[in-house]
Amino acid sequence: MNSLALPPLPTDPHECLIQGCDRPWEVAVDPFLVAPRTWYVGNNWVGAYLLESSDGLILIDTTMQPQVYLVFESIRKLGFHPEQLKLILISHMHYDHLGGVRPLVEATGAKVMMSREDWAFLQDRPDQLLNMGRPFGSFTPDAFYNDNRPVVLGDRSIRTMLTPGHTPGTTSFFFDSANDQGDPVLCGMHGGVGVITLTDEWLGEHDLPVEWRQDYLDAMLKLREMPVDITLGSHPAQVRMMDRVRDIAPGHNPFVDAAVWPKLIDGRIAMIRDIMAGTK
Ligand SMILES: [Zn+2]
Fold first, then answer.
1. DSSP state of 231
2. Surrounding residues of ion ligand 1, Cβ less than 5 A
3. Which fold has domain 3-276?
4. pTM higher than 0.85, yes or no?
5. From the CA of 217, how far away is ligand 1's center (Å)?
């Protein structure tokens, strides 16, 4: 379904999670190209990306278990078969990003990678999965990220960067791509920029360390330096991806825009500084 025909999303992320799990058809969107051999296969609320390599498909994030059938359907609509999925990369341990791992692994046998830090945190604090009672199938990662060694499948190579704060092991992804003229550009996906887990209320209520705020700020300052031309949102609304979809035209990729990344990161730096200053 075209995203323009969908009902508006609730403003509260908890309501979005409930809607997306209980009525996934209300967030279903058709897959679309965001970079050469790279597609958006998430839904109207939470992102997921499919990369084609010479040795099969890579999926970055999985959306949630009740809506993972939409990911399968997107893979099919793009002309692939789920059996081609070889590797699943997880951005962070919240349900909206890894809730679909188990059914995808069961159907495809794909290997799963995530950060060692978020795997440990998920074991230690399963309450922080934040699945609000929705179904979750457990899984075990096949490997952990090493930021000094890119994740490689066939001819695709993805650089990981540990960017903690939103969770202890939030991981961002970077990979080479091309613009409409065929010039090399960098694709970047931040692993999770939500500051909701960093407010006084949240940290207190969930018994989490206040040091996460400094981790978040340090990570954002590091991310700020990345020369990203194509920004992939872990949630599409963070970089208005569903608005940009309507500008897709032959020979024109509206997601190539070097202004988006610094704007996103600067906005988040301002938000965390406000929280740290006690003004939010
Ligand atoms: Zn999250």
1. E
2. 94, 192
3. Metallo-beta-lactamase; Chain A (3.60.15)
4. yes
5. 16
